[in-house]
Amino acid sequence: MPAASSPRLARTDKLVAIEMGGRVEGHDRVTLDFGPTRALDGKPNTFWLTGYTSPNLVLSFIGHDTALVSGISITFPQQANDPIGDKPFARTFPTSVEVWTSMKGTEDFQKAVAAPLPQDLSEHTIALPAPVEARYVKLVFPANAGAQPLTSVAEIAVREGQAAGYVPLLKRHADLAALLSSNGVCVVSDSHRFTTQPLTSIYGEKT
Ligand SMILES: [Ca+2]
Fold first, then answer.
1. Range of the domain at 109
2. For position 149, which CATH number holds?
């Protein structure tokens, strides 16, 4: 790492960002290189690419804690062609998203909202009708633009809401807040153990 580089600030406004302790439940992916955590890494040039019909992704917060969810955002890959078929990437963009939440886990989800996704490269923000407290957030992508099996998403964010009496996630995890402010990141392994790495290990140099 060149000495002149300076890391990006942690994305504390994204509840499922990797450095916030966000993780994917399950392993819906074509290959490891295009696994779903690629949609949580803050990099628009890395992406989740899945070959499932109507793919879904279950996301959780640090330590499987709860959070008040006010909405999500979705960003599509910015590259011209997909890396597997070398076809126009836009044909893999999902055309809509459903947001489901659960306090229990991989079952008992309630649909909070469904919304179309504009077919452009900007960040698409979808607000829930009202903030929902959740332990798990499931995103479902019922169809894509190309009627082909591949579906891609470059970045997913889950936004935190505010309500009287609600204590924000970072206030409940002072250790994570301190870690982020000291320029580290929280990486949660499959065994739910936390390790720390410098932010630059995820982001690389400042862009
Ligand atoms: Ca990414």
1. 23-167
2. 2.60.120.260
Instruction: List, as ranges, residues with CB under 5 A of the ion ligand 1.
Output: 38, 41, 43, 46, 154-155
pLDDT tens per residue, the chain (207 residues)? 444 445 556 677 899 998 888 989 865 555 667 889 899 999 999 999 988 888 999 999 998 999 999 999 999 999 999 888 888 999 999 999 999 999 987 679 999 999 999 999 999 999 999 999 999 999 999 999 986 688 999 999 999 999 999 999 999 998 888 888 776 666 555 444 455 555 555 444 443
What the block records as the tokens of 123 is: 């960040």
Cα–ligand 1 centroid distance for 36 (angstroms): 9
Task: Look at residue 184 and tell me if it is in a domain.
Answer: no
Dist CA 141 CA 146 (whole Å): 13
Q: How much distance in Å is there from the Cα of 155 to the middle of ligand 1?
A: 5
| pTM, full prediction | 0.84
Answer yes or no: is 30 within a domain: yes
Tell how far the Cα of 84 is from the centroid of ligand 1, in angstroms.
17
